[in-house]
Design brief:
With 113 residues, the protein is mostly helical. It contains three helices and no strands. The chain is rod-shaped.
């Protein structure tokens, strides 16, 4: 019969398994990623609405595009290029609206004249 000794460790032995406590920063990180994801969605929506606004309802879609782009940039979106494009397209919507009003006095345009 042979006896072997276990190596000694400096940590005390416990019968309960160790569980790590959740960090206080994890919910904050999840909130940040959700906020950033929302800002990314706003940047894309601003771009799409600004693009559509060049063709129809530019009196409504232009300002909405400008507001969405501004909020997305303020929240720190990763899609800054799309937000700036949405901002530019929203301004272009209002410029087109101004040109239409100056040209024929209406807030709409038609292909047939």
């Amino acid at each position: 019969m042979q006896l072997t000794a276990e190596p000694r460790t400096t940590e005390p032995r416990t019968t309960e398994p160790r569980t790590e406590e959740p960090h206080a920063a994890e919910p904050q990180t999840q909130a940040r990623s959700a906020g950033r994801r929302d800002a990314d969605g706003m940047a894309v929506a601003s771009f799409v609405l600004g693009l559509v606004g060049l063709l129809v309802m530019n009196v409504f879609l232009g300002p909405v595009s400008i507001v969405l782009a501004s909020v997305a940039l303020w929240r720190g979106t990763e899609r800054r290029g799309r937000a700036f494009l949405g901002l530019g397209l929203g301004v272009a919507d209002l410029v087109v609206l101004g040109a239409l009003i100056a040209a024929d006095g209406t807030m709409s345009w038609s292909i047939t004249g």
